[in-house]
TrEMBL record:
The lineage of its organism: Bacteria, Pseudomonadati, Bacteroidota, Flavobacteriia, Flavobacteriales. Residues 1-19 form the signal peptide. Keywords: Signal. It comes from the Bacteria. This is Outer membrane protein beta-barrel domain-containing protein. InterPro entries: OMP/PagP_B-barrel (IPR011250).
Length: 169
């Protein structure tokens, strides 16, 4: 019985090591960190990407989506639409990967500037999906003056996200 379970585990993990070229769609939920924690209580978003397999274990592509930050206290909700190059490396023989999205993020809220978008990720590869933990960071300026703290709000809007993407071929 142990041999059968071991064989089944290797078959499952072996299927996860195949190239995942094509379209992927998913979502994430996260906790704002740094400056974003002053303005938002949590974030939800959708992710979309198209990836090409370049070589064994390495995929590159383009990524977009939408991240919505839910405002807290006197702050309104705000969001960003990223447009980024995406890279992902799957470790040989393991169902683990590291990834990075790098590009720009367009603000959907007046008074918040668009900015540089950086999104490193680590994750677990499944045959038809991927689970990941990532740190999303958007370097931006907010045009408002924070009267309580007597300063202009120049912020990096960051969030620690937990997400899942499904492969749609």
């Amino acid at each position: 019985m142990k041999k059968l379970l071991l064989l089944g585990a290797f078959a499952f993990l072996g299927g996860a090591a195949q190239a995942q070229e094509g379209f992927k769609l998913g979502g994430h939920i996260g906790a704002p960190v740094g400056d974003a924690a002053d303005f938002a209580s949590f974030t939800l978003g959708v992710d979309a990407a198209y990836m090409w397999n370049i070589t064994k274990g390495l995929d590159v592509g383009v990524a977009t989506g939408y991240s919505h930050f839910f405002g807290k206290d006197r702050w309104e909700d705000f969001g960003f639409i990223p447009l980024a190059a995406s890279g992902k490396y799957r470790f040989n023989g393991l169902p683990l990967f590291v990834g990075l999205d790098l590009g720009g993020a367009i603000s959907t809220k007046d008074g918040i500037d668009s900015g540089l978008y950086v999104y490193p990720k680590v994750g677990f590869q499944l045959p038809k999906a991927e689970l990941y933990l990532g740190y999303q960071n958007i370097g931006s300026e907010r045009g408002d003056w924070d009267r309580d703290r007597d300063r202009r709000i120049d912020s990096n809007f960051g969030a620690i996200n937990l997400g899942v993407n499904f492969f749609l071929k």
